[in-house]
Amino acid sequence: MSQHPLNNHKTAVGRWAGLGPYYAMFPTDFAFQVIEEFSRPGDAVFDPFAGRASSVYAASMLEREAVGIEINPVGWLYGRVKLNPSSKNRVVKRLKEIGDIADSQQHSRLEGMHEFFHCCYAPKVLNFLLYARDLLKWRESNVDATLMALILVNLHGKKEGSLSNQMRQGKAMSPDYSIRWWKDNNSEPPQLDPVDFLSKKIDWRYAKGTPKGQPSSVILGDSTKVISKLGANIKNGKQRPFNLMFTSPPYREITDYHYDQWLRLWMLGGTAWAHRTGKLWQGRFSSKIAYKELLLSVFRGCANVLTDNAILYVRTDARSFTYETTFSILRQIFPRKSVEIIQRPFLKRTQTALFGDSAKKPGEVDLILRPNQSNPSLPSFT
Ligand SMILES: C[S@@+](CC[C@H](N)C(=O)[O-])C[C@H]1O[C@@H](n2cnc3c(N)ncnc32)[C@H](O)[C@@H]1O
User: Fold this and answer.
1) Which of 7, 186, 231, 274 has the fewest beta carbons closer than 10 A?
2) 349 CA to middle of ligand 1, Å?
3) 285 pLDDT higher than 80
4) Which of 22, 70, 74, 252, when mutated, tests ligand 1's pocket best, judged by the most ligand atoms within 8 Å of its CB?
5) 215 burial type by CB count under 10 A (0-12 exposed, 13-18 middle, 19+ buried)
6) 134: enclosing H helix or E strand
7) What residue ranges define each of the domains in the chain, with the CATH number in brackets?
8) Ligand 1 pocket: which of 49, 314, 317, 344 to mutate (most atoms <8 Å of CB)?
């Protein structure tokens, strides 16, 4: 996929586009390409499953207005911050303030923490994280949201490049697994100064400035409930109907966005243990019935917030249940649109292929629904 000229590390737009590590996310160039090809400047774009808000961000940077909805606070925070980061001076000042408070206190708070945290972070780092966790008002304040998002990006990952002992960056492993792995590999947490470390990361992120896009937003919430409010805003003229819906629903039984982000969710005030929340739309979507209900409810809601001529661009999993359900629900709700189907097989050799696993990986499918002016009753398949 070719790189979009705006989206590279020499521009502010490119530096902020990558915020932050999430799972099953759009490649940022893909988001820019779809927005450019399927909408025009001045259009309104909608993503009801926004994740880290790449669609909303690309739209905003390409002179469209966009709204996203995301149920996971980690994805939501990345999206909110990249659309409107606070000024660097204020973020650095706040970082130092938290660092000074943490340094002025005894480390007695660490004593009650589970072994996982002691194996994952050096005492000075853990102490800083505990104070940042308590003090940053990331829902209310833009400075605090920006600092918290930058902490989340660096909360875990490669040992030399993050605040933690060796861990994956996109997904936090369970405490038991992590402790075992660190012990087996004699891996100790990195001894670093969290304020110095984060200051350097902040320098890099702000080195080209901050992105300036069209006013756009991501709402933290459940699309099955929030879309009707958007519909009400459209009726009373507070919101324009959308010309493009560009989204990727969760893929059934592939990942649990909450469980896999448990450490970042802990940082945002959640439980200090990897656990499944058990709440609706916060699991692996194991129930086929509930999965269908989610798509039906959200896409029905979308029909009320889109213009008659809107285009829908939906990326989904190629595995049969997810794909067939998504396809048939979209056809049911938008019967007058034509459908183009683009297969996106995974091209890269997977890691397991090196160990003799030659199973074909299913890849993804893009469904593009357009107004079918020539023959509204017949779908056209390509
Ligand atoms: C495939 S991911 C989207 C990734 C996104 N395209 C990106 O580039 O980051 C699907 C997202 O839908 C979110 N989601 C699932 N159920 C939801 C709901 N009821 N309301 C809002 N978001 C939901 C998940 O938390 C997840 O972030």
Assistant:
1) 186
2) 26
3) no
4) 70
5) exposed
6) helix 123-135
7) 12-83+210-250+285-371 (3.40.50.150), 88-206 (no CATH)
8) 49
